[in-house]
Predict the structure.
Amino acid sequence: MAGKLKFAIAVMSGVCLLGLSGCDWVVMDPSGDVARQQAQLIWIATLLMLIVIVPVFILTALFAWKYRASNRDADYDPEWHHSTTLEIVIWTIPLMIIIVLSGITFVATHRLDPYAPLTRIDENRPVPAAADTLVIEAVSLDWKWLFLYPQYGVAAINELAAPVDRPIRFKITSGSVMNSFFVPALAGQIYAMSGMETKLHAVINEPGVYDGFSANYSGHGFSHMYFKFHGLDESGFDDWIGKLRTGGGELDGSAYLGLENPTVEHPVTYYATVEEGLYHAILNRCVAGRAPCIDEQMKHRALDHE
């Protein structure tokens, strides 16, 4: 019996290791400082919970083995119903873990607030006082991503780039249904919603090409709603911006309205020029004057109630 149990455990361990060998551990081994801090929080929470989980699994196996039907030497006490020592252990240890975990999570949640500007490039370097934060306006569409660079006057579909070690401020909205912006190597996911703007501050610390996608189901073409995020050095980023300026088209209100039509596996597309105020119009649902802007409507309503 013992030999069969050991064999079963060995087989299960082998299957688990074989499955994990094909996993992409980018969430637990990311290349951006914000995502790395989030991964550390996950590791800490997991280890704290294992303080309870591991003993439970071990004791479950031991009890099942000791009190098996064939073991005639096992203690049998049908009158046993309470142990103060066990009650103290069972309640005190999980309570202590919850207190520690809640404290760590509270601090980390405020430190990693996606709306809060970065205070450091990595664990050894604070954000320089003269740092020029890169602003990226991200718009989710059916079923593609549009990225606008207001500081450079360019835009791209399904391709994103940023310099290594430069703070990034994302302004995120949706041109249609709700989606979720997620680059696992960079930072946690955050929702994109029509008529609303969410924010995300992040930094990439290692050059590379990383996967980005929508983490929220949004219809037929959702499974193809991927893009590549390029972490580049400063010269590489300048070259990328130059590629958009020389090889891109014009993105104005009418061109954007065409992009709102659903497409699946939309090719990477560059725009050398972007109509001024286009992101504001997308956010406020008034591209090409098709409707009054939401912010103007809210302003008028506020004035009417004064």
User: Anything to note?
Assistant: Residues 4-13, 15-22 have pLDDT under 50 and may be disordered. The domain at 121-288 is CATH 2.60.40.420 (Immunoglobulin-like). Residues 33-66 form the longest helix (34 residues).
